[in-house]
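// run 5 | inverse folding | seed 20
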């Protein structure tokens, strides 16, 4: 079957956007309810549940030839069930190098090599432009009650490093729970409050500032740090602005 005839389902927001940028409009038949980019696909494509609770019946009714999933974002049991039904590619993205390999792999599989190479070049250029002059220690929080941060084996940790932050919890793995006292002991220069999955707001800055008066607390765009695929290309200016905040703080 040629790529033009493929029926593809994406179970990951980052991959959905990448497929759009690889011009797979006709082939993609299903996406998750969290696949908000691009907006036109979010409105028009069949939604097959959330990343952790896929609607298997709906997926099978779409008769996909290929499902593209992710080890971290999807549930193992559900993906294994789908593997008995059709071809499933399970991605595992922890670094920019992994991301570039993903783009190249999908480009080759879908006969979109030229577009994939273009995206890879753009992504590499963005990361090359982020070489930080100064670095700063930081905590990146993704959840509240309990507070949860990111370990050293995550894609977010790699993006923090690219921008110029040194993750004070980088010695831990996955997404550990931490307390205010844990954070205080690390004495981070920055506390970064992500916009997703927990929607941190200005009021949360005030709460934490009372506990950690010496830290610089920022609301940050979670998509810029956690979305792989092609989203980073679109966040180039934003990531540069974070670079500048580190530089200003260091001075």
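// decoded
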């Amino acid at each position: 079957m040629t790529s033009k005839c493929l029926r593809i389902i994406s179970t990951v927001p980052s991959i959905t956007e990448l497929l759009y940028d690889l011009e797979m409009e006709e082939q993609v038949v299903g996406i998750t309810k969290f696949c908000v980019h691009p907006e036109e696909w979010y409105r028009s494509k069949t939604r097959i549940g959330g990343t952790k609770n896929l609607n298997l019946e709906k997926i099978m009714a779409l008769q996909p030839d290929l499902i593209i999933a992710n080890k971290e974002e999807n549930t193992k049991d559900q993906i294994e069930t789908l593997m008995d039904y059709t071809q499933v590619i399970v991605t595992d993205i922890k670094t920019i190098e992994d991301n570039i390999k993903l783009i190249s792999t999908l480009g080759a599989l879908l006969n979109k090599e030229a577009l994939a190479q273009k995206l890879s070049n753009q992504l590499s250029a963005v990361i090359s432009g982020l070489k930080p002059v100064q670095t700063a220690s930081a905590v990146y929080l993704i959840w509240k009650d309990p507070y949860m941060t990111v370990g050293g084996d995550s894609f977010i940790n790699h993006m923090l490093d690219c921008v110029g932050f040194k993750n004070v919890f980088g010695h831990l793995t996955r997404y550990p729970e931490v307390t205010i006292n844990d954070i205080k002991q690390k004495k981070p220069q920055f506390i970064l409050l992500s916009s997703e999955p927990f929607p941190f707001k200005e009021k949360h800055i005030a709460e934490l500032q009372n506990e950690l008066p010496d830290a610089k607390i920022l609301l940050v765009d979670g998509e810029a740090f956690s979305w792989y695929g092609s989203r980073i290309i679109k966040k180039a200016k934003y990531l540069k602005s974070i670079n500048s905040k580190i530089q200003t703080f260091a001075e």
